[in-house]
Design goal:
- The complex is a heterodimer of chains A (261) and B (293).
- Chain A has 261 residues and is α/β, with parallel strands linked by helices.
- Chain A folds into two domains: 1-85 and 176-261, P-loop containing nucleotide triphosphate hydrolases (Rossmann fold), CATH 3.40.50; 99-174, no CATH class.
- Helix content of chain A is 38%, strand content 22%.
- In chain A, the strands form two sheets. A six-stranded mixed sheet of chain A has the order 6-7-8-3-9-10, sandwiched between helices. Chain A has a four-stranded antiparallel sheet with strand order 2-1-4-5, with helices on one face.
- In chain A, a hairpin with a 2-residue loop joins β1 (9-18) and β2 (21-31).
- In chain A, α3 packs parallel to α6 (160-173).
- The longest helix of chain A has 20 residues, at 125-144.
- Chain A starts with 8 loop residues before the first strand and ends in a 5-residue tail after the last helix.
- The mean pLDDT of chain A is 89.
- With 293 residues, chain B is mainly alpha-helical.
- The mean pLDDT of chain B is 88.
- In chain B, strands 1-2 form a two-stranded antiparallel sheet.
- Classes of the chains: A alpha/beta (261), B mainly alpha (293).
Chain lengths: 261, 293
């Protein structure tokens, strides 16, 4: 387990300011291939901001991102970053509500399909074959996440918990090198949380995905993550295995406040 | 009874033309939240370009191909020179920008092709004939058929192909679309190209009927009640409402017109639109925007 691998993504000294508020202050973190890493911290710590920087929605004021050993150009567009193999889900669901479950997941594979627009419009053999292949891959994901029975249901009709699952399916469909999950279990009941935790673990162990996630439920985080980074007020205050983090006085202080001043 | 059906069918045939114009609006509105005032001007430009290429004695197929080429250039330049710098600005700014595009396109058209009305004929015969006492003509039927094929093709394209799905994804949620790797501006450009092709078919249809002239740009206003009735962001809505308006105005003109002195064809569609607004403010098929307070 302890063999030293080159991290798949390295963020170095990331700083970003929103109108005078320093949302992230020289935060560095690494995501190693094959691990589940969690970013935790109290509300407003800058966790989602970090995720938005990693997937390119925000451009950091300072610092650099190195993905697969190559430094990312400063103004790289988020769609190109997605094409490099970084997929994500959102804290406040962002499904394509006008489409069915199947449609949503198929869109997730956009980057893996290559036939050009003319070929698609005329449905030439290559496009047809491609469409069928990818449809089969989508079926495997549907199978994996056990959402067979809502295949044709429009996303707008799904209950919250299932929407989260379809969003996970869409991200998995891209077969990403790095999967970012922003609070995949927020607002779920215990049973739904256990389901998602199991899917995340399976995606990591069986399918080999590298995952970075944000989650508030400490129980789940401690159970499924290999490594944890703790943010507080835009700064990294701790990093380590779940056991190290549990025992870290700075983390305890950030979460519980300081007793007696 | 035959007369009723004749009025109805001829109304529907005109309605298909309205649907085409409205479809162009709906496509662009869905993809980029822009109400494109230049849609009518795009039809005009297509008509002018086609006439121009035909006058240069291009064969019809080449002239059509070149016209589509012109629409592709227009689409890409609109998206990259006009919309791109305005991304994430208030919708009103984009709306005003499309006004600019409208005048620009009309002006350029005028300076290249002059201001005279031009006849356009693409060799579809206009022969009237009767079936069961219903008077029809081949030109209307041919274009109705063409429009139906175009619409069916678009529906299929949007449902079954990767690019079609990507375009629908963009129209649903920009951020999520980016996060799965869809380039936003390219998707917009493709949508504008498709709207341009729809505008071309509409321009050719209307141009052949009325002559290619600058008032062609104003068929856009015929599409306004259609959009209100169908719901501005709904593609099936645009098609069905176009048919409703075409049939409705023709029936009203013939059967109600005589009692009120005639000429109600021009405002009857707006009357239907007002009624629809009263009961269904988002149109018959529009997406209802419900916000939590």
């Amino acid at each position: 387990m302890n063999e030293k691998k080159e991290p798949i993504l390295r963020a170095e000294n990331i700083s970003i300011t929103f109108g005078g508020l320093k949302a992230l202050d020289r935060v560095s973190l690494e995501i190693n291939p094959g691990e589940i890493m969690a970013i935790i911290g109290p509300n407003g710590a800058g966790k989602t901001t970090m995720l938005n920087i990693i997937n390119g929605f925000y451009k950091p004021d300072e610092g650099r991102i190195i993905f697969e050993g190559k430094e990312r150009p400063k103004k790289m567009k988020p769609n190109l970053i997605a094409a490099q193999g970084i997929a994500r889900t959102f804290q406040n669901l962002a499904l394509f509500t006008g489409m069915s479950t199947l449609g949503n997941i198929m869109v997730g594979r956009t980057m893996l399909m290559h036939s050009n627009i003319f070929s698609q419009a005329l449905y030439w053999r290559f496009s047809q074959k491609e469409e069928i292949e990818h449809r089969a891959a989508v079926e495997r994901i549907i199978d994996f996440l056990q959402i067979e029975n809502i295949r044709r249901t429009p996303a707008s009709m799904l209950p919250y918990g299932l929407r989260k699952r379809v969003e996970l399916a869409r991200a998995l469909a891209a077969e990403p090198k790095l999967l970012l999950l922003d609070e995949p279990m927020a607002g779920m009941n215990l049973e739904e949380k256990e389901d998602i935790a199991r899917f995340v673990l399976d995606a990591n162990e069986e399918l080999g995905y590298t995952i970075a996630l944000i989650e508030h439920d400490m129980g789940v985080v401690m159970d499924i993550c290999d490594r944890i980074v703790v943010l507080d007020f835009g700064e990294k205050i701790a990093e380590g295995t779940p056991d190290e983090i549990k025992a870290d006085p700075k983390v305890i202080k950030a979460y519980l406040g300081e007793a007696g001043g | 009874m035959a007369f009723f059906f004749e009025v109805l069918i001829n109304g529907l045939l005109v309605g298909i033309m309205y649907s085409l114009v409205a479809l162009g609006f709906a496509l662009i509105y869905k993809a980029s939240d822009v109400f494109n005032m230049a849609q009518g001007a795009m039809s005009l430009l297509a008509g002018l370009a086609l006439v121009g290429f035909l006058e240069m004695s291009f064969p019809l197929w080449l002239a059509l191909l070149c016209t589509v080429g012109v629409m592709i250039i227009l689409a890409y330049s609109t998206v990259f020179f006009i919309l791109k710098p305005l991304v994430a600005r208030p919708p009103l700014m984009l709306f005003m920008a499309t006004f600019g595009v409208m005048y620009l396109v009309e002006g350029i058209g005028q300076s290249i092709y002059g201001t005279q009305a031009k006849g356009l004929s693409i060799g579809i015969p206009e022969i009237s004939f009767e079936i069961q006492g219903i008077l029809l003509n081949t030109f209307d039927l041919t274009f109705a058929g063409l429009a139906a094929v175009l619409v069916a093709g678009l529906v299929w394209f949007f449902q079954k192909t990767r690019t079609g799905r990507a375009l629908r994804a963009v129209s649903d949620d920009h951020e999520a679309a980016l996060s799965v790797g869809i380039p936003l501006l390219k998707a917009w450009a493709v949508t504008w190209v498709i709207a341009g092709i729809v505008a071309t078919v509409a321009g050719v249809a209307w141009g052949t009927r009325l002559g290619v002239q600058f008032s062609l740009g104003y068929i856009a206003f015929k599409a306004l009640p259609v959009l209100i009735i169908g719901g501005i962001d709904s593609i099936p809505g645009a098609i069905i409402a176009g048919l409703i308006v075409g049939a409705g105005e023709n029936l009203a003109e013939v059967f109600i017109g005589p009692y009120v002195g005639g000429g109600i064809q021009t405002f009857f569609p707006y009357l239907i639109a007002l009624l629809v607004l009263y009961f269904k403010p988002y149109g018959l098929f529009g997406k209802e925007i419900i916000e939590r307070v």
